[in-house]
Every structure is written in C-alpha cells, then in structure tokens.
Amino acid sequence: MDMNSFSPMMPTSPLSMINQVKFEDEPDLKDLFITVDEPESHVTTIETFITYRIITKTSRGEFDSSEFEVRRRYQDFLWLKGKLEEAHPTLIIPPLPEKFIVKGMVERFNDDFIETRRKALHKFLNRIADHPTLTFNEDFKVFLTAQAWELSSHKKQGPGLLSRMGQTVRAVALSMRGVKSRPEEFMEMNNFIEVFSQKINLIDKISQRIYKEEREYSDEMKEYGPIHILWSASEEDLVDTLKGIASCIDKCCKATEKRMSGLSEALLPVVHEYVLYSEMLMGVMKRRDQIQAELDSKVEALTNKKADTDLLTEEIGKLEDKVECANNALKADWERWRHNMQNDIKSAFTDMAEENIHYYEQCLATWESFLASQTDLHMEEPSEDKPESH
C-alpha cells in the first residue's frame, strides 16, 4: 500500500494504525504525515495573498481525528515559527522561506515562485513533524487542525502587545549587556556557526552563478540546431552531416535542461535552506546568551546586595534551572542538526555529481555515435582518384 496515505479499509484504532504505518528505510514508526499543496490566490479590497492546503494524517491519540484539511497563508506559518521559538528558545527551529521575492523571481505571484515557496513550506512542516520535541508542541497541533476562525481566536490568546514589547526590550537590553563567561562548548558552537555561515553563503552564491551561466549557455546552444538546419538547405553535399550535427545539439540541449532541473530542484534549495539555518542558529545562540545574561545579572545583584537577597536567591535558583534546561536542549538539538546537515548536503552534492557524470556520458555518447557514422560514411564512398574496375 502507499504508506503516505491511509487506506479506507485500514482499522481505525491507533494501535493497529501505528503497526501498519512504517517507513521502509527507517526503523522507527512514523505517525504524522503532512502535505502542503494546492496554492490558491485570494484577492480582497485590501490585499492579495496565497493560501496553501495542508493535509495531515495521523494515528496519534491526542488528535481528535485521523485526518485534517486546512488552508493557511504565509503569515500563519510565521506565527507558528514565532510560537515555537517562544516555547523552545534554544531548539533549532526549521527556517521558513523568505517573506520577500527570492533571487531571480520577477513577480511575487509567479507560478515558479509559488511552487518554490510551497515546497519550502512543505519541508518546514515536515521538519517540525520529524523533530522529537517540536512535533508535540500544542501550537503546532492547532496549526494543523484548527479552522481559520479557530486559529484566529487561538492567536488572540497569546500575550498582549505591551507584554511582548516588555519582553523584547528586556531581551535587547540583556543582549547588549552580553554574557561574562560563555561555556567553552558553546564558544566552539558559536565559532562553528560563524565559519559555517561564511562557507554556506559562498556556496550559495557560487551555485546561483553556475545556474545562471548554465542557463545562458543552454539558451545560446538552442540557437545552433536551427542554424545548422538552415545551413543544410544551401549545402547539398553536407545535408546529412549538418542535420546530424543539429540532431546532436538538440539531444545535448535536452540533457542540459535535465541537468539544470536537477540543479534547481535538488542542490540549490538544500544549500539555500542551510543559509537560512545559519541565520536561525545565530538567533538560537543569542537567545541562549540572553537566558544566561539574565542569570548573570541576578547573581551580580545578589553579590552587590542591590535587592532583597531572599527574593534574588529564589530567582537565581529558577534561572539556574532555566539555563541548564536551555543548554541541554541546545546541545541535544545541535548534534541532531549537525548529523542531518551533513547527510543533506552530502546527499545533494552526491546526487548532483552523479547527474553531471550522466550528463557528460550522454553527450559524449551522442557525439561519438555521430562521428562514427560519419567515418563509416566516408569509408563507404568511392575515391574519385581511384579508377573504376571493370
């Protein structure tokens, strides 16, 4: 059966569903399947926006049903990301695609742009679903299951504007203050992020440039086939040869298009996603430092006896627990993220290398076949200098 969907004949009890829903390539059970598809444009007197259909199929007991279908717009995804960061400040939340137009896109509602965003949103939700902690977040569940009016009502239950402003001001003040002594393991983590960010941004720029140059090369090469066909009309002795060259060029053009499709669908999105991850990681480190800075400020106040010592001692105890939880969460998530990152990038470059090898082998075989046919043709032609035998 198709493991990405539930058969109508499948037993509906959670246990029986869990026992039947497995990934062939993974030993663990998977009990949450999410699909983002069918983008739809909405035009109002105020704005124009796109919504995406989200289908969720699950066997988890905390869900009221086994299947849900909702529509969400980009702002809803931003809300979810913000709630996840708020609830889990030192976990590595998957990145969202940029709000504004990506490179090379002219129109925000261009079909290519919408499809690129749809794929990124699909990956965003499935990254969360595969995360051992984020997948059980209550706001994530609401995002997947609530109808539009229910989600709107749920959003209003969050902290008020003044409360959020106060938290932001305090966070900015603590970040400006900095931490006195960041643990060595987090210093190493921060150094890795800085170097990784530089390298992945450079790879992203180079990949985009290669794609642009390949596109220009492909467009230029497409012109040569028709040129050789026109040329053959005025060269009676070279008709077959020129048409053969045109055929070879056409085959190479098709192979180039296929290779470029692999580049744009397999490599470029992966590289750019980790560009966004590098920015996300910097934010995670800042949030960790803010928690530690808050603890440091309370310890300093207690040392200088600037406030009620009993109250400060209680607050310090709570903050120490908070810092320890934040550090442990980040350390566990860090190893998981690095493992996934290495696998994703290795797989993307390996697939691209195999695609390139196949491309060059195909083009080489095309031209070798043509040249061999030309050699055989010339060998069969009688020499003009050789007298005919009687």
From TrEMBL:
<protein>
    <submittedName>
        <fullName>SNX7 protein</fullName>
    </submittedName>
</protein>
<dbReference type="InterPro" id="IPR042130">
    <property type="entry name" value="PX_SNX7"/>
</dbReference>
<feature type="domain" description="PX">
    <location>
        <begin position="30"/>
        <end position="151"/>
    </location>
</feature>
<dbReference type="InterPro" id="IPR036871">
    <property type="entry name" value="PX_dom_sf"/>
</dbReference>
<dbReference type="GO" id="GO:0000422">
    <property type="term" value="P:autophagy of mitochondrion"/>
</dbReference>
<keyword id="KW-0813">Transport</keyword>
<dbReference type="Pfam" id="PF00787">
    <property type="entry name" value="PX"/>
</dbReference>
<comment type="subunit">
    <text>Heterodimer; heterodimerizes with SNX4.</text>
</comment>
<dbReference type="InterPro" id="IPR001683">
    <property type="entry name" value="PX_dom"/>
</dbReference>
<dbReference type="GO" id="GO:0031901">
    <property type="term" value="C:early endosome membrane"/>
</dbReference>
<dbReference type="GO" id="GO:0034727">
    <property type="term" value="P:piecemeal microautophagy of the nucleus"/>
</dbReference>
<keyword id="KW-0653">Protein transport</keyword>
<dbReference type="GO" id="GO:0000407">
    <property type="term" value="C:phagophore assembly site"/>
</dbReference>
<comment type="similarity">
    <text>Belongs to the sorting nexin family.</text>
</comment>
<dbReference type="InterPro" id="IPR027267">
    <property type="entry name" value="AH/BAR_dom_sf"/>
</dbReference>
<dbReference type="GO" id="GO:0061709">
    <property type="term" value="P:reticulophagy"/>
</dbReference>
<dbReference type="InterPro" id="IPR042131">
    <property type="entry name" value="BAR_SNX7"/>
</dbReference>
<dbReference type="GO" id="GO:0032456">
    <property type="term" value="P:endocytic recycling"/>
</dbReference>
<dbReference type="GO" id="GO:0035091">
    <property type="term" value="F:phosphatidylinositol binding"/>
</dbReference>
<dbReference type="GO" id="GO:0015031">
    <property type="term" value="P:protein transport"/>
</dbReference>
